[in-house]
Amino acid sequence: MSDLLLGFIAIGGMLALIVLGMHIGVALIVTSFATVWLMRSPEIAARFVGAAANDAIRDYLFGVVPLFVLMGMFVSVSGVGRDTFDVFQWLLRKLRGGLGLATVGANAVFAAITGISIASASVFTKVAVPEMMRHGYTSRFSVGVVAGSSILGMLIPPSLLMIIYGVIAEESIGRLFLAGVLPGLLLALLFCALILGMAYFRPASMYTAGLPASAQEQDTETWASAAVKFFPILLLVVLVLGGLYSGLFTPTEAGAVGAAGAFVIALARRRLTWRKLWNVLTETGYVSVSVLFLIVAASLYSRMLALTGMPAAITTGITDMGLGPWGFLVAYLLIVIALGCIIDSVSIMLIMLPIVLPIAASFGMDKIWFGVLTVVAVEIGLLTPPFGVSVYTVKSALNNPNITIKDIFAGAFPFVLVMVLSLVILAIFPGLSTWLARM
């Protein structure tokens, strides 16, 4: 049996194990180890696993993962998310659909200091959904806008998916963070345009009866009180992203500074008890270890594929088929979106990128641009059934049994269409992704 055939069998076996319920990281390691064993010997396979584990995460750069996760956890418990929503709600109170716009705006700002969509979905489900429903918005729209805008956390830097892509593609994480700024703002603006369009042209899809009640109690807010509420999150954004983009900090140092700043804010706001601190630390450990374990598994998997010669063979095959770069790109993005319906975002990247990156390189595609497209396509899976992680996060954070999973998926569907539109725009205009990263 040829090495190439073994490589294809390994991919099929790995997907079968995932479907049967095996953890993605374990499935990657088991199939990679077994394939190298069959190709070479048990001793070489064992050394192969040891070398991959040693080389994959020993670099100083990987400290960025737990540090940004820790910062996001401190921000979540400090109540900054609620204050951010309150400020945007007050600023946009006179616009039709203002609470929906406030949710998108608050999510965009919150994303700039968390990098995890699940954190945004959990926070704003508890903050924004009851407020919107109280003011006459339909439950379907209320949960849909929260689920839809929560995915900004995976695109606007710092982004956990960007970190994982940078590791696998061996690309600068700092440049990837820069590349996510304009696409993230574009997606937020498109979400706002969607909400305004629904508010003025299809109000029945947003409001339970007529126009929503005005939030008169918000008129007690002043510019001074709004500035006080918004100052902590603005300080973190300037501290972390300003230091990172000015070159003052490396991504790892920016994560450390951000985590320390978020810790001080949580203390100053008296939101951090010993129990909450322990929960934050343990949750950070769980998330970080799971991500780093997946990176080790992905390193072993990519080395196994390289050993079989599969990426080179697929590259040659696609070139011979005459698809060209655009044909390859469309096929790849469709596969990623389809995979998003059945497996999670990180798993998709770990499975697909070791195969497609050499092909993208052979077509001369910019890895930064390709990474942004990958993250947006992967994020669509956060909102599509049956796996949609953001949708299930919203459901788990709700205290309303009358709102079903079906309602949340239906409410998020218009945002899925907008994300597909943004994917087309970013593909046609690569400069939106590369301009800041190349400065």
From TrEMBL:
InterPro entries: DctM, TRAP_DctM. It is found in: Cell inner membrane. Keywords: Cell inner membrane, Cell membrane, Membrane, Transmembrane, Transmembrane helix, Transport. One of its GO terms (molecular function) is transmembrane transporter activity. It holds the Pfam family DctM. It is a multi-pass membrane protein. It comes from the Bacteria. The complex comprises the extracytoplasmic solute receptor protein and the two transmembrane proteins. Belongs to the TRAP transporter large permease family. Part of the tripartite ATP-independent periplasmic (TRAP) transport system. This is TRAP transporter large permease protein. It comes from Hydrogenophaga crocea.
